[in-house]
């Protein structure tokens, strides 16, 4: 339990975090009553699963105590509880193929830069697109996999029979559902990392960002292009690193409890509103270019 002063700061941070969420809820036609029902259901689900007492059944009274929801409403939620739906955009065949392609030799350089692959190779051990698809472990024909990669625009199939990976991440351009799945997973992962660093300062997880607040709009196209290249390089190297520890790809990797590890990169920009007065500009302004961190 947080001390009162820190609890107030936590609630203030949640309120600030919720503003862009509420903005999009309103823009997408999700009303406050609908959102209130969603939050109530989430409170119930989380308390039911994660705030149990050892050797005791989770009662309506306890759920009411830890959530603040009336016992009658708890009983209604229990009766009408829906099975959670958690689609995983990361688990598509396309992303598996891309991930294996960038995981390192023989399909990529040591830094994760993907190599141009022949569709088929003369020897069974020589790298090829067909061998890559078979290593992913799908029973879908190789040509069908290639057709899907061509459809979503992540590869080129050249006339000489070579296959080239042209996009190193797959966020379907026309797939709003896939992007909204990321909206549900990516911010939650970042939030959990920040909370971990608050609660476990002796074992912090990487959480870094670089902020400059006086970049001219005319430079933004160049900045966006440069940061995209930087992010792609980071993801290549991160993918190569994690793939070397993944037991699906490397059966000799270290054992133990199965764990999901995420390394991510994102870009954000917004217009800076001019301060109301010179005195206002001097209050709590971060140093230019400061690398912000949690610890």
Radius of gyration: 24 Å
How many DSSP-defined strands? Answer: 5
Distance between the termini: 20 Å
The number of helical segments is 10
Strands of the biggest beta sheet: in what spatial order? Answer: 1-3-2
Biggest β-sheet: count, sense, barrel?
3 strands, antiparallel
Helix content: 40-55%
Based on helices, strands and strand pairing, what is the structural class? mainly alpha
Verbal overview:
The protein is mainly α. It is 47% helix and 5% strand. It is built from ten helices and five strands. The strands form two sheets. Strands 1-3-2 form a three-stranded antiparallel beta sheet. Strand 2 (155-157) and strand 3 form a beta hairpin. Helix 3 crosses helix 4 (71-79) and helix 5 (93-101) packs across helix 6. The longest helix is centred in the first third of the chain and has 24 residues, at 4-27. The chain is globular and about 70 Å long. Residues 86-90 have low confidence and may be disordered.
